Amino acid sequence: MNIEKIIDALKEARICEKLPSEKYKDPFKVLVSAFLSTRTKDEVTEQATKKLFKVVNNPEDLLKLDVEQIEKLIYPVGFYKVKARRLKELAEQICKEFNGKVPDNFNDLIKLKGVGRKVANVVLAYAFNKDVIAVDTHVHRVANRLGIVNAKTPEETEKALKNVVPRRFWKDINHLFVNFGKKVCKPVKPNCKACPIRKFCNLSQHLK
């Protein structure tokens, strides 16, 4: 399968908008945005981050707020009460263990409260411009539907993609596949008729 042709076709289709985490360059804001975006629609994440970042610019600012204040600022993101507590813990950990700076390596990032592989890789890609593949449910679904990989979990998909996708395209995968997965290759009833890469897709062959 020609990965370059798939990526070029998705770029030419112009279905992609900046994801919430891509709209910030500051590592702390990228981290918080990526963290809040889990199990939350993009438009809700954007609404929450705009409110939060009017008050908070760094971990120290976040520590000045109590959990109830954070809850009000990030509502209505998914699991906002849990995320408010986690953000407070996250800020404290960054200040105590990393001198107030978001770490720029994977091993330290996943030590942070509530930060998993996907969020860590989003931070590395968008805040530190590193060659990584951030895999969420959309990337996992699209990559397997296309037949680029055959994996059971997002972590397995990440590893498999790194073996077949040239490194120069790694950062493109999250941006393109997430947008494509939300707008066209949806979990239920994918819009195959409008798909710009249908000819590359295993699923579309079964739907003929």
Give the topology, please.
Blueprint: H1 3-13, H2 27-37, H3 42-53, H4 59-63, H5 67-74, H6 80-97, H7 106-109, H8 117-126, H9 137-146, H10 154-164, H11 170-183, H12 202-207
Structure commentary:
The chain is mostly helical and 208 residues long. It has 2 domains: 3-17 and 133-207, Orthogonal Bundle (Endonuclease Iii, domain 2), CATH 1.10.1670; 25-126, Orthogonal Bundle (Endonuclease III, domain 1). The chain has 12 helices and no strands. Helix 2 (27-37) runs antiparallel to helix 8 and helix 5 (67-74) crosses helix 6 (80-97). It is globular, with a radius of gyration of 18 Å.
Features of this protein?
single chain, 208 residues, mainly alpha, Endonuclease Iii, domain 2, Endonuclease III, domain 1, 2 domains
The radius of gyration is 18 Å
CATH topology of the largest domain: Endonuclease III, domain 1
String of helices and strands? HHHHHHHHHHHH
Sheet of most strands: none
Structural class: mainly alpha
Give the rounded overall mean pLDDT: 94
Percent strand: under 5%
C-alpha termini separation: 20 Å
Percent in helix: 55-70%
Number of domains: 2
* Low-confidence runs: none
CATH class term of the largest domain: Mainly Alpha
The coarse overall form would be globular
Q: DSSP helix count?
A: 12
CATH architecture classification of the largest domain:
Orthogonal Bundle
The CATH superfamily of the largest domain bears the name Hypothetical protein, domain 2
Number of strands: 0
